[in-house]
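ingest -> validate -> predict -> emit
validate: passed (alphabet ok, no gaps, 382 aa)
predict: started
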Amino acid sequence: MIYADHAATTPVLPEVFEKMRPYFSGIYANPSAMYRPAREAKSALEAAREEAAKLIGAEPEEICFTSGGTESDTWALRGVLKRSSNRGLITTAFEHHAVLNTTQALGREGVRVSYLSPDPNGFISPDSLQNEIGADTALVSILYANNEIGTVQPIRTLAQITHRSGALFHTDAVAAAGQIPISVKEEGIDLLSVSGHKFGAPKGVGFLYVKKGISLPPLFLGGLQERSRRAGTENVAAIVGLGEACRIARERMKENAEKTRSLRDRLLSKLREVPKMKLNGALENRLPGNLNVSFSGIEGESLVLLMDVRGICLSTGSACTSGFTQASHVLRAIGCEDELAKGAIRITLGAENTEAEIDTIAAELTAAVHSLRALTPGYETF
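emit:
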């Protein structure tokens, strides 16, 4: 099997698994207790918090562990709107559904939600935010990098515009964290969401960065864990794994980015030989391992299934919306025609992929596209 869907999830790194192992049955005490085994668990939890903070240039006390990106996004959006007298919220039309579904729910509750449209290359224009933001805006939430087409947004400029209007700036960095450098202080980010399973940690653990001085009401009530911000006994083993994954990502980021970018470009050069293929989103300012392409005359779902039969794992877009046959909302947002949007696939590479695998993907994908086109009535066979 060749795995090329790292944006959906990544394998737990061996070093991460080994780091977690003692906290399942050896150091199993509740970190909120006072005896020595509990203090050992608490110490491991705080060490992981330090590593999470280092990954994004934050302070440890600004990190609050969560179950992942969806919880972090929901807490950030609902928390800011609950504490603010302003009722305006600005986001984009091509966010992950963790943000989109939350903003739609807030809209039904009386929040004035505005959606910025990306340009055809997959970027949010600072001018569009400047034209939309107003005195009633409480929060701007713009994803750091798009999870389907990989385009990295001009976060620093967008945050500056947000702050000039007195609003807070949140970014869903689930697709970007661990892949490219992030500095919340230098970029002016107030809240940032991360999910560990996107870069070698287990599923079900992540964190929300909350800038010092910002107080969010708890998403749910209970005990005093996470400095009274997030109730519930901590998942120590998973948090330890997240901390180790953050450390590894930080240390290997440059090397991994250079490798995956090279593999991506190698694959793209081969796929450009397929007639009527289109790259979705700009190649510049893009996540290093991300490739989203459309093939005219076929359905992306059929192509994914055919590639699965050939032992290659890729996707049509976000794993959170798999099973739906309508065109991707991301591709529609950047103006992709329905026929091309429905023929899109997302290939996301990791550091463990090889050049030999890239060549196999290219060959099998080319053959699969030709096979599907040959079955399409009235479509020219290449």
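The chain has a mean pLDDT of 95.
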